[in-house]
């Protein structure tokens, strides 16, 4: 029979899984408390990094409908619950792991889909959401200006064609 503390922990973890749009499992063996504090700061306000008990976290994940992580709950585990931009958090984890090889990214989940450690590294290589949106807006703006130029060119070309036809008719009328 679960104790009230364990039941509360499972409920809290379940809520964290459900309210976040991504979660990344890591192994933190060998990291100092100061390094973990630095990692939490580098993740910023978009993510919460929690050292968790494997059994309770597995139960909470399953209750939240996430079963893809079941095989990764072994050894000392911590979870980064991402509520903001997952690319930004993946970059922070990747960069921290480069400087601190004791941090091992195990797996993750993004919008209910399982991610391997390699998938998370690929996600970290993407540009941030803001950069991608600004590039998209620039592309749309470029297409709009091209369309505007095309629409402006059509009437002026029509006017030039009509003027050329009038001149030709006047020339032919004057030659007769």
TrEMBL record:
GO CC terms, sorted: large ribosomal subunit
Sample GO molecular function, one term: structural constituent of ribosome
Domain of life: Bacteria
UniProt keyword terms in alphabetical order: Ribonucleoprotein, Ribosomal protein, RNA-binding, rRNA-binding
Pfam families noted in UniProt: Ribosomal_L10 (PF00466)
GO biological process, one term: translation
PANTHER family: 39S RIBOSOMAL PROTEIN L10, MITOCHONDRIAL (PTHR11560)
Record-stated family: Belongs to the universal ribosomal protein uL10 family.
UniProt function note: Forms part of the ribosomal stalk, playing a central role in the interaction of the ribosome with GTP-bound translation factors.
Record's subunit section: Part of the ribosomal stalk of the 50S ribosomal subunit. The N-terminus interacts with L11 and the large rRNA to form the base of the stalk. The C-terminus forms an elongated spine to which L12 dimers bind in a sequential fashion forming a multimeric L10(L12)X complex.
The protein's name: Large ribosomal subunit protein uL10
């Amino acid at each position: 029979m679960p104790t009230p503390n364990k039941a509360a922990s499972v409920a809290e973890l379940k809520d964290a899984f459900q309210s976040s749009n991504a979660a990344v499992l890591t192994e933190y063996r060998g990291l100092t408390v100061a390094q973990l504090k630095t990692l939490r700061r580098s993740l910023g306000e978009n993510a919460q990094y929690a050292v968790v008990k494997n059994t309770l976290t597995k139960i909470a994940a399953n209750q939240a409908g996430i079963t893809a992580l079941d095989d990764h709950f072994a050894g000392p585990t911590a979870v980064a619950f991402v509520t903001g931009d997952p690319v930004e958090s993946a970059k922070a984890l990747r960069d921290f792991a480069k400087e601190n090889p004791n941090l091992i990214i195990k797996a993750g989940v993004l919008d209910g889909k399982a991610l391997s450690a390699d998938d998370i590294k690929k996600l970290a290589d993407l540009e941030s959401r803001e950069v991608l949106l600004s590039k998209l807006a620039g592309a749309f703006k470029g297409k709009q200006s091209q369309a505007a130029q095309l629409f402006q060119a059509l009437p002026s070309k029509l006017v030039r064609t009509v003027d050329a036809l009038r001149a030709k008719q006047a020339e032919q009328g004057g030659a007769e």
